[in-house]
Amino acid sequence: MGGGYSADPKSIDGSAHLLLEIAGLLEQGSLDGDIGTMARVPRSHDDVSAAVLDFARFADDQGQDLAALLTALSTLLRSTGNNYTTVEQSTAAALKDFVDGSTYVAPKGG
Q: How open is the CA angle 42-45-50, to the nearest 5 degrees?
């Protein structure tokens, strides 16, 4: 590729799988129901219970948003890797066609 940039499709695909794995781990690591209820009434004060419930709902919402974002990024990265591979294949095919369709002309006087 021009400009000194390059990419390895295997690395792109691996990164996409890694993002998807992180999203799955986030989903698995969400707040356990038993732990979430330990700080609720009657085990704790009403204000503490309300604060814990608000935090748990907020954390769950943020966790779901992050998992969705990582999944979307994984999909885009995988699509980018597929497009890169397609472009590389078409560039190689165009170069092969050019070389195959060319005729060698020896230099004069040489």
A: 95
Q: Could you list the beta-strand ranges (E) of 1-110.
A: none
| Phi, psi of 61, rounded to the nearest 5 degrees | -65, -45
pLDDT in tens, 48-62: 988 888 888 888 889
Give the residue carrying structure tokens 């974002």: 69
- Provide the CA 32 distance to its chain's centre, in angstroms: 26
pTM of the predicted model as reported, rounded to 2 decimal places:
0.64
Angular region, 59: left φ>0, alpha ψ -120 to 50, beta rest: alpha
**9-28 and 46-100 helices, crossing angle to 10°:** 160
Count of alpha carbons within 13 angstroms of residue 89, beta-carbon side: 7
